[in-house]
Each structure stands twice: as structure tokens, then as C-alpha cells.
Amino acid sequence: MDYVIEMLNIRKEFPGIVANDNITIQLKKGEIHALLGENGAGKSTLMNVLFGLYQPEKGEIRVKGEPVKITNPNIANDLGIGMVHQHFMLVEPFTVTQNIILGKEPKTKIGSINLKKAEREIQELSDRYGLKVDPTAKIRDISVGMQQRVEILKTLYRGAEVLIFDEPTAVLTPQEITELLEIMRSLVREGKSIILITHKLKEIMEVSDRCTVIRKGKGIGTVNIADTNVDELASLMVGREVSFKTDKKPAEPKEAVLKINDLYVKDARKVNIVKGLDLEVRAGEIVGIAGIDGNGQSELIEAITGLAKANGGQILLNNKDITNKSPRKVTESGVGHIPQDRHKYGLVLDYSIGENIVLQTYYQKPYSKNTILKPKEIFNKAEELIELYDVRTPSVYTLARALSGGNQQKAIIAREIDRSPDLLIAAQPTRGLDVGAIEFIHKKLIEERDKGKAVLLISFELDEILDVSDRIAVMFDGKIVANVKPEETDENELGLLMAGSTTTKAGESK
Amino acid sequence: MTSNNKFMTFMIPVFSVFLGLFVGAIIMIISGYNPIEGYAALWRGAFGDAYTIGETIRRTTPLILTGLAIAFAFRTGLFNIGAEGQVIVGWLASVWVGIAIDAPFIIHLPLAILAGAIAGGLWGFVPGLLKAKLGVHEVIVTIMMNYIALHVSNNIIRSVLTDHATKTENIADTASLASDFLSNMTLNSRLHYGILIALFAAVIMWFIIQRTTIGYELKAVGFNKHASKYAGMKVGKNIILSMVIAGGFAGLAGAMEGLGTFGNIHVMSGFTNLGFDGIAVALLGANNPFGVVMAAFLFGTLKEGANEMPTGAGVPTELVDIIIALIIFFVASSYIIRWALLRFKKEGK
């Protein structure tokens, strides 16, 4: 068989854990090979071994059949292995060309950088693979999707035959994802081979030829995509059956908990972005807000939670006016908020998990008394919650920064739900998480609903909206333009409504 | 992993001190001095007899407080370059109260000390307010506040407290921290009760930062403003409060000089450097109150011991400044030391 890269029986240990235990992955020439695993399964470790950043304790790496020792990334580069990192490594004020040639600048006869030659070469590469990158554009002026293509060009310019994509779609919009998958196909057509690291099953099904699954550091096996399906891949990854359809009883909505009338909110540029919005969320129901990013969803949440000023309209919680109250007042009157950006808003990353658990309640009994903190009470509570919400952390004293995204999110959810708020706002609660964590979080949201709480879910993932909500409010241009039932609609109709089409069901709002 | 980090934060300063002394020795050899004699003289100068020990502790006292002033602000994400000015106004205010008021010891002394802390706190309040309300960077404002403090204080000494004299009269005995007992015990050194206040202040800082909701908020705001706002904390209020408390510590340092060491305040031709040394102390002490105490003691030792070096070993006192600079250099370039230590640990295994 004609393999370009083979990693055979790789074992890599760290103090206390085995990150990779006997993993084998074999990459054929001209294939897209997915590497699938949950967060923390050992995907990155394996690729760092291939890239020479770690040395394996056991196992062998072969490039085109020849055993090799890769002791640093330069050797990997020389062997034709290139990595497109999840977090781009680009110099913002530099042009595309300057970034690509950085460290490998072509010289003219007198020793200055031959920018013209480099630009020509990059233009050729870009045309050949359909990347449509302008070599003279500055990085800070181009979109995230374009920046990623610059990273791809960087590896190609350095002569990579094998490209490793590390979670490439995490930062992209749906359109950009489609384009990226197309680019990957054209790369393989031109004879390159690709390893795609991801936990998004849909993308794997769409683009890959084969898939190697690892779970908790162990190699589970390699499957042909043609012979498998999403459900099988998911259960291979998680190690049990995963239900994509969330089980839930029909909702029994009761009195209105949140009532918003004619709300206006300005964005950072001082322009109205929420424009006369009406919304109602009742006890015992999950209302999902569907909409394309940038139609005022973030500002709506900020206005409800007191983080942004409303400059018109009224927000009522249990019939009490909370318009423009301080975040603390809003929180105390019974609102829980799982914020969209968990690193920016949800956690103090340099605080321990225990300290983060009391972020909303530290000033109350029993966690403090007369401004004196009670560490014992705080950490006991944290112990209780990490147990209850399955937050995997070495201890409650571990810094939040050290946890995986899924566990950070579970800690936030534990904190917000434990206060038993009448209204729970979940903004993109599952972004960037793996299947196991998503399932858990959806279950928790539905549990809250069943306890008679009101849940407001904002998500850009239509699957999530359709799956979890009892009622869908479609938001477009700062207003709710339609209210629909998930069982009576589909992605197509929602997509049209989200794009502002008024042909179907519009006017039903409120 | 956390225990490893703790080990590092402790080992890096210790290692830096030894490296600083070691490189200092090499510099002495290159310049034609005997480093053993030089360091022996330094030791004698700092701990040779009861008098030098007393003076070393006296020197340490204000450094602990300015170190705390910088460390406290730093723990809440602020860079307080204004400790220098806060020291001067604290010094002035405490001496002023010490001279102008007539009261029994039990009221007068606490009042004078408090005046120093309040003046320093006020000097921290201004940059705090400007940062919280207008987003003006505290480094710029605190540097400017230093000059305002220096010149305003000189002017007040010359035209308000005295009639064009270069120093004020001495404070009343009822406001003095000086102690015959401590002084006699240390062969008439200027050692005073201020050291107890400085040590107490370190405990206070530890308590505020680690054990109160105030410290919890201050640190949270320092780490992540957005999350703090989300959690209902008032970000601006916390910035101001942090600068006021930090300024209060520095103001106390000034009061130590005014009520303890000197008993008056004099017209200054330049800065006291207590505030600037405090930055180095905080850095060496890893912004930990107890680390600050130890770092301040080291600096007090080096500075006091340096007096003996020219007479005892013919080494110029400036060498001590070089050693201090080297220590700071090594702490600041902790990456090198971290790397060396890790290497060392691995091979030891």
C-alpha cells in the first residue's frame, strides 16, 4: 500500500496520564483523512508528535515507507509536512506575501528581499488551488476565512505535500466552511494529502475518505467513510450510543416570565441594532432565537442582562420592570446567563474553578459574611457542583484556564443553573464543544424547562434551535419577524425567514 | 502543576539574588577589588553590630510599605508608578499633623499616621478616578502626580510650615514613632516602632486580597473586566478603590520617615526613591505581601551594608546599586532562570 505518512503504535506519556496509547494512523497519498476524537482525546498530542514538538515513548513514524526521527518542526517541514493551525500565526500589519515568506525570503542579487518574485509565486499557487488570495493585501484588512487561506499558502509555499488542518472550521462562517471544503478537495486533486483534525461529524462525512477515531488516548480504529454514518462515528468517538434528537416531553408553558415590549438597543457604533423588538418567554418553555449573526441577538441579551443600555422600550421579568437595571440587580431578580463568550464574560480564567463557581454569589451568605470570604463554604459548594455537573477537573483549586472548553462551559452552567433562576438565558451554549458535552448541556436546559423555568436559547446552529426549542422566534434586522413551532418548520423555511423573506408566516410575530 | 508554579515563583527570586551577587563578585574581580572582602564589608555594614542591625531594619520599614503599594495595585491589574509621590504627601501630612496638633499620645500618633495614609490614598484616588471615568492610563497620571507631590510639598514646607527654611521643626513627642527602648537596644540607631506597622500592613494586604470580598472583586477586575461586569461588580469603583488602598500603603511609608526616622520633613531636591525602589521590591517579592517583606529586607540590607564597603574594603557603594540592578534584571528575565531550573530538575531526576 502506498502510504505517505504512517504513525505506528505511537505512545506518548505525560506525568500521570497516557495521552496517546498505541495509536496508529496511516495516510494514503491523495486522501483526506479525518482524525476524530472528543476534546482532550489526544488528537493534538498525536499531531505534535508528528510535528516534532513531542518525542513518543514508543512507536514508529514512516514517511513514504522510510522510518524517520522527527525531533523538531523544521525536520517535519523538510519532510513536506505542513500544519494549518487553529489559531493563526500571522503578522497583522504585514501583507499576505510578507507573512508567507517570513523566515524564507527570496533574495535579489544585491541581497534585498525579492518581493515581486514572491508575489508572483504566491499568485500562481493561489490560482492553482483556487484560493483567490490577493498577495498584496494586508492581513488586518482581510476576513478570517482569507487569513486561513494565507496559512494554507504558507505551508504550500514551503513545499508541503501533507497538510494537517487543526480544527479548521471552528472560526469560519457556514459559507466559508463550504469554500474551505472545496479548497481541500482541490488540494487533494493536485496530489496533496490531508489530515483533518475535527470533532464535527458532518464535515467528516462530507469531505473525508477515511477516518481514524481516538478516544481517551486510545486508537479505536480506522473506517472508510463510504461504509459508515454519523451515528456510528459518534458512538465510536464517545464510546456509547449518542442521541442526536433530544428526548423531551411536550412543553407545558404557563405564565409569562420575560416580556419585552418595543425594545431599542444601540450597538458599539451608536446605531440602533435592536429596533422595536417584542418577545415573550413563558415558564416551562424553551424559546430559541434563530438568526444570522449580527442581527442584534448579542445586543438583545446584553440589554436584558443589564450589560448594555436599552434606549427605548420595556423589559419585564415576572411583571417587574428590569429595564436598564444594573447587571447585579438583574441577576438577583432571577436571571441566569450563560454568556456567548465564555472566556471574555463567563469566567475569570485566572481564578480557580471554586472561585468561579461563586462569581455571582461570592458576596452572599454562606460564601462570605461581613465581607469576609468563607473559603471552606466556597470550595465545598464547588466540590458539590463539579460532581453534580460532571465538570472534569483535577481539583476545585485548578485554574479555570487549565480546563477544556467543555468543562469550562459545564462549570458556568452549573453556576448559573444552581441559583435556580426563573429565566435562564443560554447564548450559544454549545459553541466549540464536542458531542458528549452538547448532549449534556441540552439535557440540562430541558431539565430546567421541566422544572417550570423559562429558557431563552440563542444559537447560530439551526440544528440546535430546531432540536431543543419549544418555540422558535426568528430574529432579523433587530426584530422578531416570525414565531414558528419547530415541528412545523424546517431548515429551509427558517433560512428564508432569517434572511428577511416575508413570504411565509411573517406577521405572525408577537 | 500549581505546586510547580508556586515553587517557581519562590525559586526565581532566590536564584536571581544569588546570580546577582555572583555576577557582582565577578564585576568586583574585574575592577580589581576582592569580592570576599567586599561582601564581608557589606555583611558588617548591615549586621556587624546592634547599631547596623537597627539601621538595616529602619531602612527596610518604608520599603516594605512602598513594595506593598506597588504589589497591591499590581494584583488588581494596575501599575502604580506613583508610590513616590504618595510617599512624599504622606510624609508631609503626617509631619504637619505631628506639628500642628496638640493631643495626648494615644490620639496624636494614630492621627498623624492616619493623616499620612489618607494623603497617600488621596494621591492614588486622582489617577484611579481618571482611569475609571476617562480611561486615562494610570502610569502617565501617577508619574505626573509624583512631580506635583514633590514641588507642592517643597512649597508648603518653605512657605506654609516654615518661613523659608529648608526643614520643618520637629514633631511633638506625642506623635513620634521613635523609641528610646529600641534605640538604646541598638546602640542609638534610629530604629523605631514603624517596623511593626509595616509588618502589620503586610498582613492586612494579605487579608484583603485573599480573604475578603473586596479582594475577590479587586482581583477579578484586574484579571478580567468583562467577566467582572457580567458578575455585577462595579469596575470603575474597584479601580479607584485599588489605587486608594495602594496609595494609602505608600502614604504610610512616608509617615514612617516623618514620624519615625526623621521627625520632620525637609525640602527635597529630588525624589526619595523609596517609591521607585518599591517597584523593584514588589517585583522581587512576586507581588506577594510576605515576599515583599523579604525583598524589602534584602534591599534594606544591601543599601545599609553598602555604607561600609568603601571604608571596609575600598569598594565603591555604587557597586551595590549594580548588584540590585542585576538582581532585578534576573527576576525580569525570569524566563532564563525558569529554563535553567527546569533543566536542573530534569537532570536531577
From TrEMBL, chain A:
Keywords: ATP-binding, Cell membrane, Membrane, Nucleotide-binding, Repeat, Translocase, Transport. Transmembrane segments: none annotated. PROSITE patterns: ABC_TRANSPORTER_1, ABC_TRANSPORTER_2. The keyword Ribonucleoprotein does not apply. It is found in: Cell membrane. It comes from Ornithinibacillus halotolerans. Belongs to the ABC transporter superfamily. GO terms for molecular function: ATP binding; ATP hydrolysis activity. This is ABC transporter ATP-binding protein YufO. It is a peripheral membrane protein.
Automatic annotation (TrEMBL), chain B:
Keywords: Cell membrane, Membrane, Transmembrane, Transmembrane helix. Its main location: membrane. It comes from the Bacteria. It is found in: Cell membrane. The keyword Cell membrane applies. GO terms for cellular component: plasma membrane. The chain crosses the membrane at residues 12-36, 81-99, 105-126, 191-209, 239-262, 274-299, 319-341. It is a multi-pass membrane protein. GO terms for molecular function: transmembrane transporter activity. This is ABC transporter permease. It comes from Ornithinibacillus halotolerans.
